[in-house]
Design a protein that fits this description.
It contains 3 helices and no strands. Helices cover 93% and strands 0% of the residues. The radius of gyration is 29 Å and the shape is elongated. By secondary structure, it is mainly alpha-helical. It has one domain.
Length: 189
């Protein structure tokens, strides 16, 4: 049986975990807000610079060159923003996962201890029921470990796919900028 002290300690530990996770969530939000402020400031500066450059354009060729030169930096900035966003989300998610795994390990340990205690104090003839219960607890633990491994593998695949998409987008933007620049150079001749 659980004592009142054990229940109070369990609730206290759960509240501390909740408090820690809440702080981690707010840290993630703070990082996201900071990132968005930096991106917004950079976008405003870039827009002002581009507007100034547009006002100094002398002909259509120069306008096309200016516009073509804008694509690659925009794609690179979008890719960098996505990468920062992904890093913030995955870092916060990792903190939540770590806390969750710790709680699950602690709970599994307590359940195992409880089952062992119940098995020692079980009345004669209940060995089969105790064995079935122990088997169910072991199966649940194995299922959790399998799910945990599958989630980790899925996260690794998602990160690899994200990196591949980001690299492809950056390379496509570079290619488009080079093509536009080459086309403008040919038209000038």
């Amino acid at each position: 049986m659980l004592t009142p002290e054990q229940l109070i300690a369990s609730h206290k530990a759960n509240l501390e975990t909740l408090y820690g996770l809440t702080n981690k969530a707010f840290e993630g939000v703070e990082k996201l807000v900071e990132l968005n402020l930096q991106v917004t400031k950079a976008a405003l500066t870039a827009t002002a610079n581009h507007a100034q450059a547009l006002l100094s354009v002398k002909d259509a060729q120069e306008l096309l060159a200016l516009q073509a030169g804008l694509f690659q930096p925009l794609a690179e900035k979008a890719s960098a923003y996505s990468r920062h966003l992904y890093d913030i989300a995955s870092g916060t998610s990792a903190e939540f996962s770590k806390a969750f795994e710790s709680k699950v390990a602690d709970t599994q340990s307590k359940i195992s201890s409880l089952v062992d205690n119940a098995a020692r104090n079980a009345p004669a003839g209940s060995e089969t029921a105790v064995a079935v219960f122990k088997s169910a607890v072991a199966a649940a633990s194995n299922a959790y470990e399998s799910v945990q491994k599958a989630v980790k593998q899925a996260s690794e695949v998602a990160e690899a796919n994200f990196n591949a998409v980001a690299n492809t987008a950056a390379n496509t933007a570079k290619s488009a900028a080079k093509t536009a620049s080459s086309s403008l150079n040919r038209d000038k001749r």
